[in-house]
Amino acid sequence: MSDHVYKHIDITGTSRVSSDDAIRTAIKKASESIRGIRWFKVLETRGYIEAGAVKHWQVTIQLGFTIED
To answer: What is d(CA 63, CA 8) in angstroms, rounded to the nearest whole number?
Structure first.
């Protein structure tokens, strides 16, 4: 494995299904415009409650991607 330098950004994904789906949604969308994504870290999980049930998930993640030469 060669040495890498990483840049990282915070993004928030949303889902009506689950927190895992919110993470996948965020990564999929970010992958459309960011090359070299290598890792993520969950920073915060939030949800919207309606009628006593979770109606919507929001998950903020930190993405790490390699800086190209």
So the answer is: 5
CATH code, 19: 3.30.1660.10
Assigned domain for 1 exists? no
Tell whether 31 is covered by a domain.
yes
Cα separation, 5 vs 35, whole angstroms: 14
Report the chain's terminal Cα–Cα distance, integer Å.
16
- How far, in Å, are 21, 36, 63, 69 from residue 24 at the CA level? 5, 16, 12, 28
43 lies in which domain range?
6-66
What is the number of domains present in the chain? 1
- What are the tens digits of pLDDT across the range 33-69? 999 999 999 999 999 999 999 999 999 999 999 987 6
What span, in angstroms and rounded, lies between the C-alpha atoms of 27 and 4?
20
